[in-house]
Input
Amino acid sequence: MRPRGAALAIVSTALVATNYVTAKVALSSLNLETFFFLWFAAASVLSAGHQLASKRSAFFTECVQHWRALVPMAALGAVSNVLFFAGIGVLDPAISAICYRTELIFSVWLGIVTLKERLNRMEWCGFALVVAGLAVIYYRAGTALSIGAMVMVVSAFLGVISNWLAKRADPDVDVGLMVAVRCLGSLVFAVVYVLVTGRFNSSVPALPLTMVAIGAMMGPFLSFICYFAALRYMDFSKVSILRNSEPVFAAIYGVVFLGAFPGGRQLAGCVLVLAGVLLVALFRPGPAEATGWRATRHSFS
Output
């Protein structure tokens, strides 16, 4: 039976992959500054509103108590987010998702080097298949990656560091609190960004506004709740490998909602990525009983 952590990681991936379509549609009518502000305003209302409804004043108390862990995570996450959406604006959904999968390279080695995590033989095989799939997709007769692809790679690197900080946070930090602070940090960054550039458009058509609302619910809010919950049951590097099914979901969404059919190389790469993900999901050892973040985190260090 697939572990609970693996299921949460895959659900998180399916949810966040919708962003490649919803954001692409919204960015076709909005500039980046307006989109980024609206996106994280909606996500902040959802995530912070949920926290305030359940914790009330305790939300502010916990923010102050854990600010040393939360502020760097939110700051790096904000920069990663704006680069992420800048990349989506110039790339199709499947290619955007695939470029962001360089996150795997950064996260696996960061987990191994700093968190003393280990992969078994089948997980290493899965990792190799994912890397091979990315290589197949990236290779274009020796041509250099586009600026959009490089922007996505930088976004992936900063996102990994942000998520690593979340993993290393105080075990008493609530999952929902991390999601809310991450969204609020991006909203603050968006406000500063809009004020500096002066490029906010107050006239927003109905379709992109709807896409922003749907995307903010699925991506920054629900997907990261599932993601941080998955970290309670699985190693940081293993969750990251499972999230490499993201290009497959993005390609499916692109075909269904945008009519964007991936080419043969993209399909071959996606098959390799999916095979690697399945190896990790099916052959990893059964997890120990997860009784809380503190109990599982102890096994990681």
